[in-house]
Amino acid sequence: MMTDVEAAQATGPGILIEGLTKTYDDLTAVDDLSLSIPRGEFFAFLGPNGAGKTTTIKALTGLVRPTAGRTLVGGHDVQVEPVEAKRRIGYIPDHPYLYEKLSGRDFFRFVGDLFSIPADVRDARMEEYFTPFDLMGAADKLIENYSHGMRQKLVISTALMHDPEVVIVDEPMVGLDPQSARTMKRLFKQKAHEGKTVFLSTHLLSVAEELADRIGIISRGKLIFLGTIDELRTRTHNDGDLEELFLELTQTGE
Fold first, then answer.
1. Which CATH superfamily is domain 1-88+166-177+191-254 in?
2. Tens digit of pLDDT for each residue in 7-16?
């Protein structure tokens, strides 16, 4: 009998990127990128500033239109079937936009209504995610009074509320205290164990090394490595940690 992860993987990749290219005037931000990320995988997408990570995420979430190529989430083309694709995504951006005149509870319920989540399910999930993040005591306070860390925890909770097939995360650790960071990492790892696809972009290489099943490294818009950290060590003939391996690879341009 197949496990939940094996059953999910059998239905095809959670994320499929084929020949993705995005140009802005004379700048090629992403250059012919192809990736297949199975369901149940925790994938870390790494690269220096300006490498093309955020542009890739924006293409995955439908925020930019590719110049060429396509992106699929849960088998749905983000450009051709945007509603079906976005229903399957939980997106945690690096600079989230929140309605500051709403309370945390009202914002959570508002997003739940957008995804047509039944009220009882929505409220149960609010408690499920607010409690470990210690947000229940602030649930009825206006978001304008939240600290940056509280806002980040609200965004993470809200993004997971509709039980997305694919979780796309861009620099989630900013502003989080150590306890909340641990809770966040546990939640994302749990989602991968449940057969979800987790796509994490971060500059915190220690987090990627701790959590990721595979990593992809992008530099100047091109994918320069795809595989496990052990495979990266073999390629670079270096037994160091991910930070050392990453710097060696991106500085040499290999």
1. P-loop containing nucleotide triphosphate hydrolases (3.40.50.300)
2. 444 457 899 9
